[in-house]
Amino acid sequence: VQLVESGGGLVQPGGSLRLSCAASEFTLSTYYMTWVRQAPGKDLEWLSTISPIYSTPSYADSVKGRFTISKDNPKNTLIMQMNSLKPQDTAVYYCAAGIGSGRYYSSLTDYKYRGQGTQVTVSS
After folding, report:
1. How far apart are CA 72 and CA 81, in angstroms?
2. How deeply is 51 buried, as exposed, middle or buried, from its count of CB atoms within 10 A (0-12, 13-18, 19+)?
3. What's the pLDDT band for 66 if we cut at 50, 70, 90?
4. Are 111 and 37 in contact (CB under 8 A)?
5. Which of 13, 22, 63, 76 has the smallest set of CB atoms within 10 Å of its CB?
């Protein structure tokens, strides 16, 4: 099983990025799919989860209204569209799969599967 993130990079404040997470050996409709991030010296932060069957999204207050989670089912890929980026959004972003939202997980290993992460840097 693999989750491979892509789409990170350097962007100016107010800019946008689109993160992708390609899944292999399982379909996205099997698990709750989640985006989390971790900034240097900070705890893992849950950002958003999309439910397996009905694709119901949920968001952390810190990203609500700016980030949008979605699934590209034909490509079996999880997406996070990030708009109005702020310097405090700088972190390594991970996608993960689990049997629940993982909203209160404290470690990436609490998820059943997780990717290797992609760096997002918001700076002028």
Report:
1. 12
2. middle
3. very high
4. no
5. 13
Query: DSSP readout, 110-121?
Result: GSSEE---EEEE
DSSP string covering 16-70, please? -EEEEEEEESS-GGGSEEEEEEE-TTS--EEEEEE-TTT--EEE-TTTTTTEEEE
Three-class SS state of 96: strand
Mean pLDDT of the chain: 95
Note the pLDDT of residue 11: 98
Within 8 A by CB and 6+ apart from 57, the residues are: 48, 49, 50, 51, 68, 69, 70
CA distances to 10, 48, 101 from 110, in Å: 29, 16, 11
